[in-house]
Design brief:
By secondary structure, the protein is mainly alpha-helical. The protein is 60% helix and 3% strand. Helix 29 packs across helix 31 and helix 38 packs antiparallel against helix 41. GO terms for molecular function: DNA binding.
């Protein structure tokens, strides 16, 4: 505005003195004229610098500035001091937190807690100072963290601040990535300082002090005054060497700016800071629980990208001994006892009913807070040894053992197994699993092919003529009639079926694929006994699986003994089998319960992992939780035997009576209970075995169905069988032997077929290497079509994207022809017609074979042809090309108005019209007698566009002024 009034030496734009009064104050229409003046200045500057023109589009911003900083009362437009101060950054915030942590003064813990709380909740100073202990609670958030996350909730009652005066406000806080900046650790560290070091006692539930217990009291235990709060902040700013324009309000500004820099949307920032208040945000949702904002305020990566897998730290997985918790909060045990007593007496009166939930919530909250303090101290105790809380914790031997075990586990990477997978890692893991499952299925198919091949060899070698085969069938039938045992009947039926298959094959009634499929189905159903080679192969596989299982169990035991810091050191684990540990959820477990978890349940998302982090164990021991699926299966079996009409209690008595009746005489109660446990374990093992067998049968049946339609072995042998010349040469003297039918391809001798198939053994077993077996080619192609073939599970879409990227990279790497650039300078074109011919008619040199023009490539979005060109030069082209398209539309509209519908006007015709207009215009250089060039015509079009925009803006401003007057 000062430039617009006074001007500047050398500017071609005239100053706006006529828009100002005698005293230099801007008049009302200054904002409208200022936009045109600035646009002219920008055009001149761009022209002198040879840059593309810039268009200022928003004229309303100038009017807003005028209304805010200029008035008719003599205000000279001096702007107020800004809130945001560039000297107060995240590094200064971290440095201030570390300075307060290193201090031995207990009151500095109050300053640290107050500072981190205000920054984490984006609150005003008057919203922070009156907060009480009874207003704290917790809430589980299902969308933060690998499974769940608990947030500490602070309820701000109505009439408690300036942002919300009629409705309560809720603020949520989660743990920060760095323990030195964690607001929850600082808050409970300050409470522990008050209770364990300064000797202050916890309030009694139901006492008047219970509701008035302040989190950050001022002088004489009363609410902190704004001046006292300002003194604390000024002291901190002096240590940091910064001088922000705001004192207590600076943390609110810093938190908003930090979220904005991390990519959080403006609406989320406005809602969580209560700058945006509406009925939706105050009556239906709680903006203080927005996961995106909570993660950003904790400085967790990926907050704005909705990636919650980054909310993880090693210290979160440490169970804390109960001794340390009661050492930090000496009155917590009494508070828990009072809360339990209040819950029992809740039915006695309405007052007890009100006190019990609040006391229980605060008691559990303090226990959770003590766990956070100890977990953060594992990272901070050695860095800040003068901190009063760290000195207190280092006095406990259990904390020193815990610290030693935590450091060793972290150094050896024992916590890496609990780190949640990122989105990219989850996709890679899914693709790898799909590939492994696909290869396992193909390997099983190849193994089943080979077993069927072995059975085929045994069946074919049993007889060489039709008569022996028929005799075998008759003998098998007689043996089946004589043998009455189940095993004998099954074996006889299998032998008869095999012999009948041989006879049918020799008679021409059955084909080779049919025999193979029948044999495979019989083997899968267990009707055919396996060969000695198969038995040996099965035994080797079982031994290998047993060895792998033993190694996995040993790794699990070693992993869980060292992974969790909750087990402390080996000495503490040996001496403290009855030690109680507290998890981050506030739940208490024995040491051996926490250390006895399995690897599957410790992974993120596992049942025990969720229970460890959220406390939802439902009062079940870990061993019972692991056996719960089997117990449900046994209960289902018992319910099937249960007579109808009996209640649960009656059926339980019937079961006990049955057990007592089955009790052998002479057994004591302990021996009888041991016997029942043994029977139950045996039933569980049988149920597990039945479940595995059922899964195996389902997989085998599905595999047989797929193989029955493909006829794998028949397709492998068919090309070799039908080649009569090759078969006769391979069979030799064996050609006179008995033959079997091979479908439509004729017949070959059986002995020759055996020799051919034996030579094909390597071909048959190649299914182990990526399904190269001929009979599996069709299924392999189907799997590849669904993205599960040899492409590694990436799928057809990923393959297409990869191929497209490779093509683009190759196009970019291809060197252009010597002397040929993507597009020449604009001055090369002598007319608009030549420009239109180059753009829309002449094929590009890279697309001569396809005949594609530059316009076609631009319409298709193929901008790679511009690689290596100047963006500024192409912007000059765009001015003229846009004018060509507009002229083309004008000509089409003119033809339509004349009643000539469907007439198309090409770009060359539009360019001829523009050339006529260009030649009719005078040359801006009066000394030149030449017509206006293409470059001068572009500047002319740009000036016309600017003038039209200025006129349009002036008309809009006049219309708006008229509306205001009305």
């Amino acid at each position: 505005m000062k430039w617009y009034v006074a001007g500047r030496a050398g500017d071609t734009v005239k100053s706006g003195r006529k828009a100002s009064s005698a005293s230099g104050e801007l008049l009302r229409d200054a904002a409208v004229n200022m936009h045109s003046a600035l646009q002219q200045l920008v055009d001149d500057s761009c022209r002198r610098a040879g840059k593309a023109p810039w268009i200022l589009r928003d004229a309303q911003g100038y009017e807003l500035v005028f209304k805010a900083h200029c008035s008719r009362k003599g205000d000279k437009g001096a702007a107020a001091g800004p809130h945001v101060h560039v000297s107060f950054t995240r590094d200064d915030y971290l440095r201030g937190c570390e300075l307060l942590l290193a201090s031995s003064d207990p009151l500095d813990a109050r300053t640290l807690s107050l500072t981190t709380y205000q920054a984490a909740t984006v609150s005003r100073g008057d919203d922070v100072r009156p907060r009480h202990l009874a207003e704290l609670s917790w809430r589980f958030l299902g969308s933060v963290g690998p499974s769940q996350c608990f947030a500490i909730t602070v309820m701000q009652p109505p009439e408690g601040g300036k942002t919300l005066s009629t409705r309560p406000a809720y603020k949520g806080i989660i743990r920060a990535q760095l323990p030195s900046m964690c607001p929850l650790g600082a808050l409970f560290r300050w409470l522990a300082t008050r209770f364990a070091i300064e000797g202050e006692s916890l309030p009694t539930p139901g006492h008047p002090q219970w509701q008035s217990f302040l989190l950050w009291p001022g002088r004489a235990g009363k609410e902190m005054t704004p001046s006292n709060h300002a003194e604390l902040m000024k002291k901190l700013y002096k240590l940091l060497g910064v001088a922000p324009s705001k004192v207590t309000h600076e943390l609110r500004v810093f938190a908003a700016q930090a979220m904005y820099e991390m990519g959080v949307s403006l609406e989320v920032i406005q809602r969580i800071g209560h700058w945006l208040l509406d009925s939706f945000g105050t009556s239906y949702i709680v903006p203080g629980f927005t996961p995106e904002a909570l993660l950003a305020l904790g400085f967790w990566p990926g907050a704005a990208q909705k990636d919650f897998s980054g909310y993880w730290a090693e210290r979160f997985h440490v169970g804390v001994p109960l001794e340390l918790i009661y050492g930090l909060f000496p009155g917590l045990k009494e508070l828990e006892a009072e809360a339990a007593a209040a819950q029992q007496a809740a039915a006695a009166g309405p007052r007890s009913g009100r006190v019990a939930p609040e006391a229980a919530a605060v008691a559990r909250l303090l226990r959770m807070g003590a766990v956070m303090v100890v977990q953060d101290a594992l990272e901070l105790a050695e860095r800040f040894p003068d901190n009063p809380i760290h000195k207190l914790l280092m006095g406990y031997a259990s904390f020193r053992d815990l610290l030693f075990s935590y450091k060793n586990g972290k150094r050896l990477g024992k916590f890496a197994g609990q780190r949640p997978l990122t989105v990219k890692e989850q996709i890679q893991q899914s693709v790898q699993q799909m590939q492994e499952q696909c290869m396992a299925a193909f390997t099983s198919a190849a193994e089943l092919n080979w077993r069927g091949f072995e059975k085929l060899l045994r069946e074919l070698t049993r007889g060489t003529t039709a008569a022996p085969a028929a005799a075998d069938a008759t003998a098998a039938g007689a043996a089946a009639a004589a043998d009455t045992t189940a095993a004998g009947a099954a074996a006889a039926a299998a032998a008869a079926a095999a012999a009948a298959g041989d006879a049918a094959a020799e008679a021409g009634a059955g084909t080779l694929p049919d025999v193979v499929v029948q044999n495979l189905q019989a083997m899968a159903a267990g009707e055919l006994p396996p060969s000695p080679e198969q038995q040996q192969r099965i035994q080797e596989q079982l031994q290998q699986l047993e060895l792998e299982e033993q190694e996995a169990q040993q790794q699990d035991v070693q992993h869980h003994d060292d992974c969790f810091g909750s087990a402390a050191s080996l000495a503490a684990a040996a001496a403290g089998q009855g030690q109680l540990l507290c998890t981050p959820s506030g739940a208490v477990h024995l040491l051996h319960e926490v250390a006895g978890r399995t690897a599957a349940t410790l992974t993120p998302g596992g049942h025990h992992f969720t229970a460890f982090m959220t406390g939802r164990e439902d009062q079940l021991p870990f061993v019972q939780q692991q056996q719960q699926p089997l117990q449900q299966q046994l209960l289902q079996q018992q319910s099937d035997e249960r007579p109808p009409g009996l209640s649960d209690a009656e059926w339980h008595m019937v079961v006990q009576l049955r057990q007592q009746q089955q009790r052998p005489p002479g057994l004591s109660d302990e021996e009888w209970q041991l016997l029942l446990q043994t029977r139950q374990a045996r039933r569980q093992a049988q149920a597990r075995q039945q479940q595995q067998q059922q899964q195996g049968r389902q997989f085998g049946s599905s595999l047989l169905q797929g193989m029955g339609t493909v006829e794998p072995l028949g397709e492998i042998a068919l090309p070799h069988i039908t080649a009569q010349g090759a078969a006769a040469a391979a069979l030799g003297a064996a050609g006179a032997r008995t033959a079997t039918t091979a479908g439509a391809g004729g017949s070959v001798p059986i002995d020759g077929l055996l020799e051919v198939l034996l030579d094909m053994r390597q071909l048959i077993t190649q299914g182990r290497q990526g399904c190269s077996c001929a009979g599996m080619q069709q299924q392999q192609q189907q799997c590849e079509d669904h993205g599960m073939g040899e492409a590694g599970g990436a799928g057809e879409v990923l393959q297409q994207q990869h191929q497209k990227q490779q093509q683009q990279q190759q196009q970019q790497k291809q060197p252009s022809k010597k002397g040929v650039k993507p597009f020449p300078s604009l001055s090369v074109h002598t007319s608009m017609e030549a420009l239109a011919h180059w753009y829309a008619v002449q094929p590009h040199h890279s697309e001569v074979a396809a005949g594609r023009t530059i316009k076609q490539m631009e319409d298709d979005g193929s901008h790679s042809w511009r690689a290596g060109g100047s963006k500024q030069r192409w912007s000059e082209y765009m001015v003229l090309l846009t004018a060509l398209e507009e002229k083309q539309e004008q000509l089409v509209d003119a033809q339509r108005r004349l009643g000539r519908r469907g007439v198309q006007v090409d770009m060359v015709a539009a360019a001829q019209k523009l050339d006529e207009e260009r030649l009719a215009l005078p040359n801006p250089n009066p000394k030149s007698s030449k017509p206006m060039s293409i470059c001068q015509f572009r500047e002319h079009l740009t000036a016309q566009a600017h003038a039209a925009a200025a006129a349009r803006l002036a008309a809009e401003e006049a219309e708006a002024a008229g509306a205001e007057q009305q």
